[in-house]
Structure formats: structure tokens, C-alpha cells
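TICKET #2291
ISSUE: user wants both folds in one file
ATTACHMENT 1:
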Amino acid sequence: MISLIAAVDRHMALGFQGKLLFWLPNDLKRFKALTTGHTIIMGRRTFESLPKGALPNRRNVVLTSQTNLHLDGAEIFASLQAALESCRTDEQVYIIGGASVYRQAIAFADVLNLTEIDAEAPEADAWFPAVDPALWKEKSRESHPADEKHPYSYAFVDYVKVNLSPI
């Protein structure tokens, strides 16, 4: 099972200059709850943006063309294909960014776990791929209003890939 997990604004913006656009504690808690105990795949710049390096209690997989690179707590692969081939068939895999990795991985994904933030980032330089309603069906939505810790309303939205095979 392959899931893409991300927080996006109204225009599917993900980040700016290697940083998240919004700080939503409940989004971070959801990310941790979903990914702990599983494999996370990310690009090198995403790994380098993690404040403490490899995320604990997860198999950290980093994609980079710098195959001689050593990153503490992470396995290095030159391609998404190679990284996915290293995973067991029963392994839950989460793709956690960045934008180019999401673009490559969306074709392989079974689920999208998005935090849709009801706001527009003032600046963005990375975007999540478009969620085509012909390919993705909303499975669940959990909406939350803005509060003292969350300056914007947001929703946890899970999409599943539409089964396109003939009946």
C-alpha cells in the first residue's frame, strides 16, 4: 500500500524555500500517527529539512542521485522505482515529499492523505500534483475550525484511487 501524505493550501501549494507553509500542530500529530512504524520515502532536500534528521520509529528512505551520500538513519536510493522495489508487498509506504517525488509517486499511489488548509500561502515554490476526480474518490473528510493553535480551518481528507479496471 502506497500513500502520499501532505498538507496543502487552497491551490495545492506545499512549501516555500524548503519549509512547510503552515504550522498546524494537529497536522503534525496526524502525520506522526499515520507514519510511525512504517516506511517513509522522501527526496534529499525533504530529508535535509527535517529538524532532527531521520524520523524515529520509521524506515527512512531518501531518494538522491548522490548515491555515495551517507545520511544517518536513512537508506539511500537513486530512484523511486528502486526504493519501492526494496519494500515488502505487505509494507505500508508513505511518500512524504517533496514536490518532484509526489509527481513521480502519484501514479503508484493507492491513497492520498491530505490536510487541506483553508488558506492561501503568501508565497510558495512547491506544489502537490492535481487530484484528478476521475482517478481519485474522497473516502473521508474530518473538518476542523481555526482555534488558538491553528490559525486556519483545515480538513483531514483521505482519497482512494478509483478502480478503473472493467467489471
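ATTACHMENT 2:
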Amino acid sequence: MFDTPVDGWYTWLGVALAGVTVLGVTLGLPVAPPPTATDIATAVDATATSERDAATTVDVDAEAIRLTPRGVGVRGRGGAARATFQYGPVVQVVGGRLDAVLDGVEPASVFASPAALKTAAIEARTTEPEWRPAPRRLRVRHVTWGGVDVTLVG
């Protein structure tokens, strides 16, 4: 009456496998929430739609970022997210003369003419977007000069 039934080890094996499965699923869940791209897109859109020249910075809580003329993607330990700009296209700045304009230098002191600014913006837009390490802060600047209207992001 108090003996262990012969098929009892099957029950213990099943319980052990269920416990290991639950532990594996629990450890596989992300420990951090996925980063958000909507805050970045909102800041870019707000700056881009301003009637006058404007600049802003937005905090980035991600490990990697990918800017395209029409949107932004971010990746982190918790996953990935993407958001589309309502206004665009924007220009991703990765060094060069556009970086000086993004830093606040007047375009007239960096470029010979508005046409040169437009050409530089078009060239920067045509580079293939790629994942880059995310900065702590992303800079956004909307510039209008001589009929040229660009939004720089870097």
C-alpha cells in the first residue's frame, strides 16, 4: 500500500521536463523593453515642419540606429522598432560639411551657394542606410536658405 507504483517514475520525468521547459521560456524572455523609435520620429517631424530654422536634440535609448530618408529604426537588447517620418525626406549626416551645418554653423559660411547645399543633401540622401552604433543624443536641424529646405539628422 505504501510502495511506489512501478509507473511513478514516468510522472516524475514529466514534471521535471515541464519544469525545465518553464525555466527555459522564462530565461529566454527579454529583460529590457524594446527601444522606441516613435520619440525620434516625432522630434524629427516637429523640427522639420517648423516654419523657421529650428534645431533640437532627442535622447536615444538604443544600441544601434538606422536612419533612412523616410524613417528610423532602432535596436536594443529588448528587440527592435521602426517609425516612419510624416515629413520627409530627411538627410542623414555622417561627417563632412553637412555636419558643420547640423552643429549650428550658418550654411552660407560652409557652402558657396544654396545649390551647393542642395547637391550635398542629395548626395547624402543617396548613400545606402546602414546600422550604426546609436549615439546618446540625436541632433536634428531644419535649414532653409535661398529656396533650399533641408532637415539634417545626425
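RESOLUTION: both attachments delivered.
EXTRA DETAIL ON ATTACHMENT 2: DSSP finds four helices and eight strands in the chain.
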